[in-house]
Task: structure prediction
Amino acid sequence: MSDRPATFTLGGDLTVNRLGFGAMRLTGEGNWGLPADPENALRVARRAVELGVDFIDTADAYGPGTNEKQLAEALQPYQDGLVIATKAGQSRPSRHEWKPLGRPEYLRQQCELSLRRLGVERIDLYQLHRIDPQVPAADQFGVLAQLQKEGKVRHLGLSEVTVEEIEEARGHFDVVSVQNLFNLTDRSHEAVLEHCTRENIAFIPWLPIARGEHAAAGGPLAGVAREVGGTPAQVSLAWLLRRSPVVIPIPGTSSVTHLEENMGAARIELTDEQFERLSRPA
Result:
């Protein structure tokens, strides 16, 4: 059986449980506006914290703005140790559009708005949602470093980046987290995960629950789930927790039932054989 650490310390001073919560799905259809049942969304957020979640991921683009306000409404006054990580750098011109926007004045404006919506004086983890290819990366990294110097953010991270981009950003500030797409089915960012593991940078996989062949009824996930008495979703998350000690999965849901199921992944320990079986290509 594995000796799997239950926590990870971001930036040397911010320790969180390694199973977080992605709040994006608390918003309305297409991550736009409020959901049909706003009170249910607040219940889900509160239940996550009750279940021991102390790392919640959001972004200014979710809603847009709505998700940060939801978390403030649901969780203020924030309990000690609760980390709400947010992001900037993705604009939402319309319900179906996501466009990188990294002009320094825009990132600064969005930081101020996030501080206001979340009702905090400092954001514990502020992440660049996407690097804008139309703006010099150094300008984007530079304004984030300045926001940190001003005390508006505690730690800084990146999202959907390469190893080379991580290293470029580290020339401007200490990168404590990287948030890339990663799960059992899609491991295209394996090199980034390996780099983060070596450098002790938190790797936050979005869309952490496997889909496709791995998740099929007769696939390896279903087989291991039967053996451990869990669900395929729980085993997907348990595999990520075992994959590297720097991984912090952030499964998201708008259902209390699914939330409770996801959090059950923390109790599942995979044997070496089960982990290797799942790790084989589908």
About this structure: The mean pLDDT is 96. The first strand starts at residue 7 and ends at 10. The chain is about 35% helix and 15% strand.
